[in-house]
Amino acid sequence: xxxxxxxxxxxxxxxxxxxxxxxxxxxxxxxxxxxxxxxxxxxxxxxxxxxxxxxxxxxxxxxxxxxxxxxxxxxxxxxxxxxxxxxxxxxxxxxxxxxxxxxxxxxxxxxxxxxxxxxxxxxxxxxxxxxxxxxxxxxxxxxxxxx
Length: 147
Prior knowledge:
The chain has 147 residues and is of the alpha+beta class. The chain folds into two domains: 8-39, no CATH class; 54-145, no CATH class. The chain has helices spanning 56-74, 85-99, 103-106, 112-129, 138-145; strands at 13-14, 28-31, 34-39, 41-44, 47-50. The strands form two sheets. It has a three-stranded mixed β-sheet, with no helix packed on it. It has a two-stranded antiparallel sheet with strand order 4-5. Helix 2 (85-99) runs antiparallel to helix 4 (112-129). 18% of the residues are buried.
């Protein structure tokens, strides 16, 4: 025995269900005398899971986080002057890796709405990497910023 104990008070439960079903209201389970409510979604390893495996809330919260990261990393990267292209690509790579974290899990459930959230933040990253203005299109910015 390793002596590993689970903290029942910190335990969360999530019910995975089909796309046309909702989780039962007020569902709960009891573990060691402690009642644990079944939630509609939960955060696990920086990934927001829901019962349908749709990841909609994950992308909804990821897009502003990425844009804030680009803004924080972009302060030393003005459009005029500043670091050269290799440094800018490094910053873009850091934010890209944040966006693609756990991609093998959610890639099969990408919807048009989730793609729009990713594209919005990807455009901001690409515009910063190419020293472009905010009027540059997504296609042009990502094409010029590609490695």
